[in-house]
Amino acid sequence: MLNLFTYIILIISSTCWAMGDGVYQIEIIAFENVEPSYVGAQQWPQKAIELNKKEALAVDESSIDVRTILEESRILNKSVELITQSAGHEIIYSSAWTQYLEDDKQNPPVHFIGGRYKVGESWEIEGLVAVRPIRNLFHTKVDLIFRKQTNEGLKEFRVAQSGRMKARESYYFDHPVVGCIMLITPYTQE
User: Fold this and answer.
1) How far apart are CA 71 and CA 149, in angstroms?
2) Taking a C-beta distance cutoff of 8 angstroms, is the pair 24, 99 a contact?
3) Are 125 and 113 in contact (CB under 8 A)?
4) 101 - beta bridge partners?
């Protein structure tokens, strides 16, 4: 039989670690490694496969499901500043939004598009972010396409990775040409 102290500890720990349903702030920074040797060092396909956007939500200020977070309220602003100051990297895209996530459910992915400039008919970067909270972890999938005009013509680089993240810990999705930092935190209204 559990004593009262053990029972209280179990209740407190379960409420601290289980995130559950709720609104979360999701932030993403995509940046380019501008070292020219990375682009030419490997063989890259000319064209990436299209993203599957049919179930995706758009980041929109007027949306009920996914709302844009103003730049001054973003947690990763210091990271953006540090990347901007580094000689070998340039920010391609930085965004933050709120999203209601149901625990242990595959929530709809969020579709984002943007960048520093347009490349042909498309923007420089386009991607999908899917988040599934399970207890104290977030199962995340990032699938993005980075378009770059090179001497050999237009090239598309794809980052399609998944991982497990903890709340309030930034996570790095690695690629030789384009990197991505992501952060998920429970959303609190200021």
Assistant:
1) 28
2) yes
3) yes
4) 22
Instruction: List the chain domain ranges.
Output: 20-186
Closest CA to 186 of 10, 20, 15, 12: 20
Q: Which two tokens stand for residue 87?
A: 């000689």
pTM for this model (two decimals): 0.80
CA-based nearest residue to 38, from 76, 72, 88: 88
Element (H, E) at 6: helix 4-17
Cβ–Cβ < 8 Å for 174, 147: no
Q: Which two tokens stand for residue 158?
A: 């794809």
pLDDT in tens, the chain (190 residues): 444 333 333 333 333 334 446 899 999 999 998 876 666 656 666 677 788 888 888 876 656 678 888 888 898 999 999 998 988 899 999 999 999 998 888 889 999 999 999 988 889 999 999 999 988 899 999 999 999 887 878 888 888 999 999 999 999 988 888 999 999 999 887 6
Stretch (H or E) spanning 30: strand 22-33
The candidate with the shortest Cα–Cα distance to 28, out of 175, 146, 169, 129, is 129
Q: Which residues partner with 162 through β-bridges?
A: 141
